[in-house]
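Late entry, written up from scratch paper. The run itself happened at the end of the previous shift, but nothing got recorded in the book at the time, so transcribing now.
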Amino acid sequence: MKYGVAAFPSKKLQDLANSYRKRYDPHYELITPHMTLKDAFEVEDDQIKEISEKIAEIAKSHKPFKLHASRVSSFSPLTNTLYFKVDPTPEILELHKSLNTGFFNTEEKYSYVPHITISQKLSDSEHADIFGQLKMVGVNHEEIIDRIHLLYQLEDGSWTAYETFRLTGDDQ
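Output as recorded:
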């Protein structure tokens, strides 16, 4: 089964992201707007308890963090994906590192860029047009994220929470 780890922003930021996603993101109905902390990975059902325990340990060693969506950006020319750029604070980068090293050591395709996707799989002309518009509108949103979620993918391709973990920093 496929799993991943993400942080979900507040309803206010999700609503803003969805105002674009419903028009420009074919994955709109598959997952709520989120910031990926660990890309999708395959795991056998009998391993999920151990993985869940490891994520719980990681959550106890990280405090809540500030998420600041500071602008609209693009992964072009790699892909025609537009996103709200999340400032890469040391707390976010350390949490990402903890979820991708040691027990979870997996090779990532790309270097980590904290973000919330607002459009993807656009043609080159659509991408250029929409990017120009959204850059002018911009985004400036701050909030505190105090939990992360282990997600799993259903047969229809949608993602749902398997377990939620509070970031407490108790084991620092």
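The chain is about 30% helix and 30% strand.
(Scratch paper discarded after transcription.)
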